[in-house]
Amino acid sequence: MSIRTPTRTQALLDYLVFTAAIATGLSLFSSASNILGLLRTASNGLFLPLLLTLVVTFLLDPLVNLFEGEKISRTTSIFIVYLLLAGIGTLLVSLILPHGMETWLALKQDLPRYTARFTSLLSDFQTRLHQLAPFVDGYDLPAKGRALAERFVAELLLQTPRSAMTLGSLLILVPLFTFFFLRDGQRMLRLGVALTPNRHFEMVHDLSYLISRQLSQFIRGRIIEAIIVGLVVTAGLACTDIRYAPLLGAIAGIANLIPYVGPIIGMIPGILIALVDLGIGGEFWWILTVYILIAQVIVDSFILIPIFISRVSNLHPLWVILAILMGGKLSGVIGMIIGVPVASIIKMTLIEIRHYRATFSLPDGGDERG
Amino acid sequence: MNPFWQNIFRKRPEDESVAAFLGSTPLFAELDPRGLSTLEGRAHSRRYKRNETIFEEGDPGTGIYLVRSGRVRIFSRSGEKNERELASLGPGDFFGENTLLAPAPRTASAHAQENSELIGLFRADLLDILRKHPSLGNKILLGLARVLSERLQTVEKASTCAQQETLTPDESDETETAS
After folding, report:
1. Does residue B172 form part of some domain?
2. CA proximity to A215, closest of A61, A77, A20, A28
């Protein structure tokens, strides 16, 4: 069979068609990246409010369900829950706000003292280290520590008013979003599931129900666990003369959301303050016992985790470290806190799908049935 | 009224709604309009093209389908190409009710014989109704129990008849003398 050589006109036509195709592809790619860029800019800053909204929705859903019934509509029951929360919130703010301002002003005054003490502790440590191991030389630990502490204090003083502004916008956005998520969340989920092709609709609908039930239990469990650990630490610290017990309790509770590493990070400020203000003595050892033995071992590991947290959500330490690193890279400290729960959620979703397949003995390679 | 406004404020006639259709089936005949409207909010309306698969034998089954329009063929396969038709269902009929309470693999296949609209109600929806509207959930469960019991009685009768037919005349005479 002979191969026909293209004429000059055909070659020109081919050339034009290929050029037009490449130009169209490039312009499509460029407009797509423009659209993606626009979308990214438009949704910038919405990630945190949406995530918090999801958490609050999962927390409030059982309360709303409690009021909702034959006589009370869902919207009315959401309003009842909001009214209750507004009442409790007002009461708490009126109690905490004066104390909170006092604490903040005292902390602002005390911070230089803590950083100075921290630097002198580092200096003592270096002297001892030098005595024990004379070959460790030429590394100015106190200067590095001082620089780090100064940077931290400057950052804290600068970031706090900015955080207060973010908090203000969150206080408006989160309740608003939560209202709609609570009222229409089910409908939104149904609309999403309804897009599934007919053939897989039933399975996707059932799986979405099972997964959302697991997730709500997990998020609720984690938040309740953090609150109880925070309260236990606050109560334990309040028995001593340490200052800022409620603040330290709150830090311990929030840090407790990160497994393995969180409790250690959560206890560092408390131990530092205890070391500076109280010195090593009976109270210092009690504070250490409260942090490690009472809050972590007895309350968290023996009581809370078996009750609230399913063993299914446990992550391998390697995944925890990866989740923290990746979360931190994506959205800083908040990313580090939420990285691990997000990883747990992904793991639970996968396990639920596997469990579902096992229940109905589905083949692993998809539905290639004869 | 101007046709434009008429179109905007047009209400769907009662008998066209999914709630009215659900109320016309024996499963939900006992429900009041409010209960039917709640059920309508939980049910899923799905449209199937002619010959489209609804489910295959062995698929995970978690709910019931009601035929609102069109026809559905229920059949089982005994080999690669041997299909045995079990039923052909039309508007108002329902199938798959066994898996609503206890999820299990489907025991037969269902395909749309013509363009059809089905209303699906699944275990997740029933559990949600039971949690939020217990009395409505109880009525639905009672309806379901009644239908299942009727079907069981029919099967029992059919199996007794089949047994009697297979008995030889001598055996049946012996049985009669014994009784």
Report:
1. no
2. A61
